[in-house]
User: What shape does this take?
Amino acid sequence: MPVATYRLVALDCPDPRALAGFYQAVLGGEVRRGSDRWYELHVPGGARIAFQRAADHRPPEWPGGDHDSQQAHLDFEVDDLDRAQEELLALGAAPLDLDDRGGERDFRVYADPAGHPFCLCRA
Assistant: This one.
């Protein structure tokens, strides 16, 4: 019997409304405002991602710097890595590691506009 039930993943950021909008453009769904400091994205299928204002937010260093770490990251499946990458970069994602070794590696790493790393994974 489980101890708890999954609720959501929350990401600290300087502008929760803007970051919720970025992920809504990536995943679809509905953004709901809890307060000026808290927004949630309800994605199709029932998962939720929350965005919480952190005035002193510093993006994690990727891949695991000396004084910081990745902290957490999100993985998203896509059918076409190249097409999805083009769309993400247009939305404001930043490339972190695009070397998929000629298709040998089935993922690429990006940062969202607040600096959180996430991966596009070949479905």
